[in-house]
Specification:
By secondary structure, this protein is mainly α. It is 67% helix and 1% strand. It is built from 15 helices and 2 strands. Strands 1-2 form a two-stranded antiparallel sheet. Strand 1 and strand 2 form a beta hairpin. It is flat and about 70 Å long.
Length: 380
């Protein structure tokens, strides 16, 4: 069997180091123990109050098991919201504190590959917690009430919620250098974001409805103003996504015939221009997941831009001597002309100097001591 090779070096290194730590097993044990403490009382209540008939058939309250499954889903959602920022907010800043970030930037890996490796390695523990909780949550599947597709669909919603919340931790980790500051900023931002999505959406819709009623009653103007577009801000709220997905799959209530089906049933009360058959309300969870994953991609791209090294221009030299006269710099063309003309002047000087040097050399070569016989022959 071939081994699965992870191409991203950062992800491979972090998984080999972090997944071997004892804290991973301890966190998984505590998490599954909490799920078991919630699930076992529901199972005991269901089996104790099961109604038996004379012919040996026992009727189990499947609705109670569905409620148990929804409680477990919300428990995992709350755990994801608290654990994800703490696990992701230090993935990049800890490299800055250890002064190893510059080493990563000098490798062949791009900043986008570094951010992807840090992002996936930081959410790996949360994804393992979600998967490790499947045996306890599958107890409902044994007794009946839900099918395998519904269970896997909720797992995908929880995984997308984890990926959405993790992008903010990576962003603040790339923005600041201190891990503690990054964790604090992540929790503050998530708290403000969750509160603003509720307040702005419902508050904006209420204000627009009040303005519409005022214009209609006081000035007899029928402008048909509604604040439905404010409620689309709830697409960025993961709690609303989990609420709508659980409501559309299982429904809220102890009676399946009168169960509440999430945003689809709120169409007549909140959305003035929409009905319960509107395609946006029916696909609310799907649209919300797509919007959140798109936001996560953009935030990760922004994080990669933040850690990208900036090429700065060299500063100009400023002299400390204020009274110093500036040096005149000749243009480059004049310097080139002088450089090209210098060999010709040297050649001309050498050519003019050769005859004089030759004559002086010949004059110096004439003999000074002449024999008497030779002088007489020359005179004759």
């Amino acid at each position: 069997m071939k081994k699965i090779m992870i191409k991203n070096a950062v992800l491979r290194k972090d998984m080999m180091l972090d997944m071997k730590k004892p804290k991973v097993a301890i966190i998984m044990l505590i998490f599954n123990a909490a799920l078991a403490l919630v699930a076992l009382p529901f199972l005991a209540f269901t089996t104790m109050f099961a109604s038996a008939y004379d012919y040996g058939v026992t009727e189990v309250s499947y609705r109670t098991l569905i409620v148990m499954y929804m409680v477990l889903v919300w428990l995992e959602t709350v755990a994801i919201c608290f654990l994800t920022p703490a696990l992701t907010a230090g993935c990049v800043s800890i490299e800055k504190e250890r002064q190893t970030m510059d080493v990563l930037l000098t490798t062949r890996m791009s900043t986008w590959q570094i951010i992807k490796g840090k992002y996936l390695s930081s959410i790996m523990l949360v994804l393992m917690l979600i998967i490790s909780g499947l045996p306890i949550m599958s107890l409902v599947y044994i007794y009946g009430g839900i099918n395998l597709w519904q269970m896997l669909l909720m797992m995908l919603v929880l995984i997308s919620t984890t990926m959405y919340l993790a992008c903010f931790g990576v962003f603040f980790s790339a923005l600041v250098k201190n891990t503690i500051v990054a964790v604090i900023l992540t929790y503050i931002f998530l708290g403000v974001m969750l509160s603003l999505t509720f307040s702005v959406s419902f508050g904006g819709a209420a204000i627009m409805a009040a303005i519409n009623d005022y214009l209609e009653w006081e000035h007899n103007l029928h402008l048909d103003l509604h604040g439905d577009y404010f409620l689309f801000i709830l697409w960025w709220n993961p709690f609303v996504t989990v609420f709508d997905s659980t409501a559309q799959i299982f429904g809220y209530g102890f009676d399946s015939s009168s169960a509440f089906n999430g945003m689809q049933d709120l169409g007549g009360d909140l959305f003035v221009s929409m009905s319960d058959k509107n395609i946006i309300l029916k696909c609310w969870s799907l649209i919300s997941v797509a919007v959140q994953l798109g936001t996560a991609y953009l935030m990760l791209r922004w994080s990669a831009y933040l850690i990208k090294p900036v090429k700065r221009k060299p500063k100009k030299f400023v002299s400390n001597f204020k009274n110093a006269t500036p040096r005149k710099v000749q243009p480059a063309a004049v310097q080139n002309m002088q450089a090209n003309a210098q060999p010709e002047a040297v050649q001309n000087a050498q050519a003019n100097a050769e005859p004089v040097a030759t004559e002086s050399a010949q004059a110096n070569m004439q003999p000074t001591n002449v024999q008497p016989g030779t002088e007489q022959i020359t005179n004759q």
